[in-house]
């Protein structure tokens, strides 16, 4: 875990809760997209940055099963 990486992330995303989990070995963030808070996990700071930036199109990475707000898309019958 790098304190420098955590500091860079906190400066880039002020007000967001970001931490490194020493037991999980993962980076974490609480992201406030328009539909509510999301807990995001990533393997490294770069992946966490991508997940935070793309959190509006939840789930991230986007899945064809879900719409832009993470709600299941209904198939036409």
Report on the architecture of this protein:
This protein is α+β, with helices and mostly antiparallel strands and 77 residues long. The chain has one domain. Helices cover 25% and strands 21% of the residues. The chain is built from two helices and three strands; from the N terminus they run αβββα. Strands 1-2-3 form a three-stranded antiparallel β-sheet, with helices on one face. The longest helix has 10 residues.
Strand-helix topology:
Layout: H1 3-12, E1 17-21, E2 26-31, E3 38-42, H2 45-53
What level of helicity do the residues show? Answer: 10-25%
- Give the strand order of the largest sheet, numbering strands 1, 2, ... along the chain: 1-2-3
How many runs of DSSP E, i.e. beta strands? Answer: 3
* Rg, nearest Å: 14 Å
The CA-CA distance between the termini, in Å, is: 50 Å
H/E element string? HEEEH
Average pLDDT, all residues: 78
- Overall geometry comes to globular
**Low-pLDDT runs:** 66-71
Report the sheet-strand fraction.
15-25%
**Main pleated-sheet profile:** 3 strands, antiparallel
Helices, by number, come to: 2
Count of folded domains: 1
């Amino acid at each position: 875990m790098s304190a420098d990486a955590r500091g860079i992330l906190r400066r880039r995303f002020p007000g967001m809760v970001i931490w490194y989990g020493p037991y999980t070995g993962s980076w974490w963030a609480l992201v406030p997209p328009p539909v509510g808070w999301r807990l995001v996990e990533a393997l490294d700071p770069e992946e966490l940055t991508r997940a935070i930036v793309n959190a509006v199109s939840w789930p991230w990475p986007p899945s064809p099963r879900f719409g832009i707000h993470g709600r299941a898309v209904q198939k036409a019958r």
